[in-house]
């Protein structure tokens, strides 16, 4: 394998005086006590200056970040001066950390304003409606079904409506919350300089134009896509049809329309950055509310494409969802929405996505949007519960997908082959969805790139650090986060090198000292050669096998049949930045959990430092870059963009497709049409400054017969905006987490008062909990029997919980907590109170109620108590005289529905009605009363299983975790006194809340 790298001295020297000015906002010479900037702080601020320097060309005249400074590039965007929602989210992250160092938050707000103006297609106050017909959307009929296909040649796909779409459960509450349903999400792709020439139809004051590319199945790559306008009034494309007839087939000419698509990872990253800005001191609620609103709408990324029930298509027969049963609670690849243009444009549609990729999940965003400590809970009534479910579901997803080595496999789909086909026998499933090693696209396979690993697990490392810092080291969420990131760090560090070069063969496989290929395994030993000043990280992976079918974290074992082969060492600067952040957050998390770095945490911290120091020598004055061999660039010259027979249209650069240079398509790929080339679609690319170099390299090096670059592949240096931000923020996060540095040294102070104090009474004890306080060494617990004190010290503890057992039942106690460190004691917390009481004694008679929890998810949209009655007496019991009560909290008071799915004694004999408590009690504001129309239970007999479930009519979620009658541990039939039984109105078994 040929290795290419670039190392140049930093040509832009930023003096310490400049660093002092940027970091403090003070001109040199003014009175200020400032800690000398660390190397990492200086480098972050240097890169910030490089990115924001207009002479370097990262931003357009409208202030939009380009995908890259260079224009001849083809990856996700096919032109460098396009941009993505991803770039905007990185911009938000950059400004969040600039605010951390400077406390100047104006730049963060300017970035959000620009994002709202140019890439969130709403009327941002300028009078231009960019979702002009969204109000016509019918949530009971979101969209018309069209199948996805494995090859672009099989498109357009017929809008057949073969499967009726399910019901959208979010639209009504979003309208009620925000006054309209205009989606507050970014469209993923923007033609920043209107290079394609389509223009911004709905806001002609903007140069930047909404465009789209990938529309034709999993095999369509950037080399096979046709860029087209997202606002399509049929001025371009096929006369009378525009571009729609390339993608979908209708019985009549397609209508003029607008349509947008988001990439869920971008919005999640923007929310993640706003969470950290808030943690760093940002407190402008106007913009924090914008992040909350974005999170509210981002829930559409949790839904199946056509709102089909999750797991219902395993046999090839999907069932339309009626609400939250169509939510997989993960971050899907995209969502999309659109509507009509013109006088007849009184319609709108919306879809989710059925394919979930591990690299798009964001547990930090889910934490911020669901937890009080996260501070970004959206306003809609069910948003917090949804995001709380998503937080756990995403962690389960990563746990399910972790290979035996520690790498994270691809993901899952709710629509096999994009057409709800039946799963092949033996397919592993996650909550009923089929395992997919490469969700969404196959050219190249979507989970081969190491960057997908670093992106996803970096967020897991962040959550691990957040939870450990908050003192949460025992919850299941913490256990999953720790397990995933620890295994992943242990695996990845075996393949990362500084100042030495790994030995590989011609196909990119790592070799050991005996020149054997390393094909997976743990604690591998890669052979290396000395290479001072170089860094190497993996580029690609190969996958074998599949994970075990998911059956809950408590039942999860190592995926011994899921294996990852790590390949192709490379020098991707952007991935390097994300990887360093994963190392830094993990290392800091081990210290937060244990008080000092673990051995692996120490190794991660040192590796992060070594990589940062080495990477800095690759800074060329505009950013950290390496020379990239682009072996795929022969595809600039191939003919592989499919145009169906009979389709002809004009594009924005004045060219007509298919034109005279097309070649017949391959019948084996299922189409009947022609192929055109990259330049046939984008003739202006041939005017690019780098085009002549690429043409010469192609003519002198590419061998079409062998399909190889015989004299080396073309080499480019790219200053990608997102890559530079990833590196810049890597320096900042290392400085913040490992150096533990802020902007200025501060004198030690007493800690803040504890918050979130809660008291729960039981028999002869009171349990107290509170949020862990930064800089606290211990906590003083004070108590009084008088409301408002005075208080007496009960105990001093080092954890953020305490159980007071020196109490007397039926006495009310009042508590305050104070945090303590070497400087002194904090102010006291707000007061809480509790009254311990004697534990009630359950009634036990001849009838016993047994219970099994049939649903392990405490935050979904159905409650499933399976019941069984047993007669332990000597006389038969007439079931018509028996009633049972299941106590719960409704979590949003709407009508409810009772279902009996199966019963040995027949569901026709079982009835259920819902009773609202006049006064809510701990664990209940409703109970389900179950009664019987007939039947008798003989002495010594049992009723057999009764499979009961119930839901709200709007299918919103319950939160069962605090319900009186709920017990997640009872997974087999067990006597349960929290479901009382009554005979002729008299309690004969159990107890009431």
Describe the structure.
- It is a single chain.
- This protein has 993 residues and is an alpha+beta fold.
- It contains 16 helices and 45 strands.
- The strands form 14 sheets. Strands 38-42-35-34-43 form a 5-stranded antiparallel beta sheet, with no helix packed on it.
- A hairpin with a 2-residue loop joins strand 27 and strand 28.
- The longest helix has 22 residues.
- The protein is globular.
- The termini are far apart.
- The N terminus is likely disordered.
Describe what is shown at a glance.
It is built from 16 helices and 45 strands. Residues 843-993 form the CBM3 domain.
Structure characteristics:
993 residues, alpha+beta, 5-stranded antiparallel β-sheet, 23% helix, disordered N terminus, Cellulose 1,4-beta-cellobiosidase, FN3_dom, 6-hairpin_glycosidase_sf
Beta-strand fraction estimate: 15-25%
**Poorly predicted sequence stretches spanning 5 or more consecutive residues:** 1-34
SS field, number of helical segments: 16
Can you count the beta strands? 45
* Average of the residue pLDDT scores: 93
What is the SS-derived class?
Answer: alpha+beta
């Amino acid at each position: 394998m040929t290795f290419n790298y670039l190392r140049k001295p930093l040509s832009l020297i930023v003096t310490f005086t400049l660093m002092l000015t940027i970091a403090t906002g003070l001109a040199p010479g003014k009175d200020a006590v400032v800690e000398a900037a660390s190397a990492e702080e200086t480098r972050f601020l240097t890169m910030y200056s490089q990115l924001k320097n207009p002479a370097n060309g990262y931003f357009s005249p409208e202030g939009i970040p380009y995908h890259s400074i260079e224009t001849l590039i083809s990856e996700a965007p096919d032109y460098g001066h396009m941009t993505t929602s991803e770039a905007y989210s990185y911009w938000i992250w950059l400004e969040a950390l600039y605010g951390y160092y400077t406390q100047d938050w104006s730049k963060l707000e300017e970035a959000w304003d620009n994002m709202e103006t140019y890439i969130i297609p709403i009327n941002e106050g300028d009078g231009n409606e960019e979702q002009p017909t969204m109000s016509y959307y019918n949530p009971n009929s979101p969209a018309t079904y069209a199948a996805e296909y494995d090859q672009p040649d099989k498109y357009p796909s017929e809008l057949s409506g073969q499967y009726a779409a399910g019901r959208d459960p979010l639209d009504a509450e979003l309208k009620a919350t925000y006054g309209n349903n205009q989606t507050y999400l970014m469209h993923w792709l923007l033609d920043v300089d209107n290079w394609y020439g389509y223009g911004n139809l709905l806001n002609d004051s903007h140069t930047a134009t909404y465009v789209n590319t990938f529309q034709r199945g999993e095999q369509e790559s950037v080399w096979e896509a046709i860029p087209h306008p997202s606002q399509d009034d049929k001025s371009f494309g096929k006369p009378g049809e525009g571009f729609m007839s390339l993608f979908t087939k209708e019985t009549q000419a397609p209508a003029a329309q607008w349509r947008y698509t988001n990439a869920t990872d971008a919005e999640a990253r923007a929310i993640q950055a706003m969470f950290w800005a808030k943690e760093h001191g940002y407190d402008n609620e106007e913009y924090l509310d914008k992040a909350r609103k974005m999170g509210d709408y981002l829930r559409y990324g949790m839904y199946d494409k056509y709102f089909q029930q999750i797991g219902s298509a395993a046999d090839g027969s999907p069932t339309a969802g009626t609400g939250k049963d169509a939510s997989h609670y993960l971050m899907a690849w995209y969502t999309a929405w659109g509507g009509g243009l013109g006088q007849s444009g009184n319609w709108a549609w919306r879809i989710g996505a059925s394919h979930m990729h591990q690299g798009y999940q964001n547990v930090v965003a889910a934490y911020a949007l669901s937890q009080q400590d996260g501070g970004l809970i959206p306003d809609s009534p069910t948003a917090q519960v949804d995001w709380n479910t998503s937080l756990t579901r995403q962690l389960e997803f990563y746990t399910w997908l972790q290979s035996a080595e520690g790498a994270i496999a691809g993901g899952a789909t709710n629509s096999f082959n994009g057409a709800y086909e039946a799963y092949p026998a033996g397919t592993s499933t996650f909550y009923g969805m089929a395992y997919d090693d490469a969700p969404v696209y196959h050219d190249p396979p979507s989970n081969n790139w190491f960057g997908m690993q670093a992106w996803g697990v970096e967020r897991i490392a962040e959550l691990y650090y957040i939870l450990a810092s908050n003192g949460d080291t025992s919850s299941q969420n913490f256990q999953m986060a720790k397990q995933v990131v620890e295994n992943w760090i242990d695996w990845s560090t075996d393949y990362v090198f500084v100042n030495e070069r790994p030995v590989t063969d011609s196909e990119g496989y790592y070799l050991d000292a005996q020149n054997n290929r390393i094909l997976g395994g743990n604690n591998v030993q890669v052979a290396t050669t000395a290479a001072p000043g170089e860094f190497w990280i993996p580029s690609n992976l190969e996958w074998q096998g599949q994970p075990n079918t998911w059956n809950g974290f408590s039942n999860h074992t190592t995926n011994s049949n899921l294996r990852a082969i790590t390949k192709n060492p490379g020098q991707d600067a952007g991935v390097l930045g994300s990887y360093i952040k994963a190392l830094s957050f993990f290392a800091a998390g081990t210290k937060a959990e244990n008080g000092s770095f673990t051995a692996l945490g120490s190794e991660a911290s040192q590796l992060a430092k070594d990589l940062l120091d080495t990477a800095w020598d690759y800074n060329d004055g505009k950013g950290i870059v390496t020379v990239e061999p682009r072996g795929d660039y022969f595809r600039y010259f191939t003919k592989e963009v499919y145009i169906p027979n009979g389709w002809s249209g004009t594009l924005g650069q004045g060219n007509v497709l298919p034109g005279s240079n097309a070649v017949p398509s391959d019948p084996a790929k299922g189409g009947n049409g022609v192929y055109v080339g990259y330049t046939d679609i984008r003739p202006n690319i041939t005017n690019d400054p780098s085009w002549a170099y690429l043409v010469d390299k192609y003519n002198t090096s590419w061998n079409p017969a062998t399909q190889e670059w015989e004299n080396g592949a073309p080499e480019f240096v790219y200053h990608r905006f997102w890559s530079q931000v990833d590196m810049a923020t890597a320096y900042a996060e290392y400085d913040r987490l490992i150096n533990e540095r802020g902007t200025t040294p501060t004198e030690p102070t007493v800690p803040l008062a504890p918050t979130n104090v809660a008291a729960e009474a039981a028999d002869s004890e009171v349990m107290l909990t509170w949020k862990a306080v930064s800089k606290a060494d211990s906590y003083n617990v004070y108590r009084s029997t008088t409301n408002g004190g005075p208080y007496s010290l009960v105990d001093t503890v080092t954890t953020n919980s305490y159980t007071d057992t020196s109490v007397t039942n039926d006495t009310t106690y009042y508590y305050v907590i104070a945090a303590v460190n070497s400087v002194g004691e904090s102010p006291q917390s707000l007061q809480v109170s509790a009254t311990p009481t004697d534990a009630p004694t359950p009634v036990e008679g001849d009838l016993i109620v047994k219970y099994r929890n049939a649903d392990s998810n405490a935050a979904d949209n159905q409650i499933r108590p399976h019941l069984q009655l047993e007669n332990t007496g000597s006389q038969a019991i007439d079931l018509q005289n028996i009633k049972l009560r299941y106590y719960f909290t409704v979590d949003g008071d709407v009508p409810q529905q009772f279902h009996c799915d199966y019963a040995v004694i027949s569901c026709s004999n079982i009835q259920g009605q819902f009773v609202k408590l006049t006064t809510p009690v701990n664990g209940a504001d409703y109970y389900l009363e179950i009664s019987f129309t007939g039947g008798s239970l003989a002495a010594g007999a049992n009723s057999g299983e009764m499979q009961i479930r119930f839901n709200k009519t709007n299918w919103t979620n319950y939160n069962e975790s605090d319900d009186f009658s709920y017990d997640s541990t009872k997974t087999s039939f067990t006597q349960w006194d929290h479901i009382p039984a009554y005979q002729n109105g008299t309690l004969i078994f159990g107890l009431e809340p």
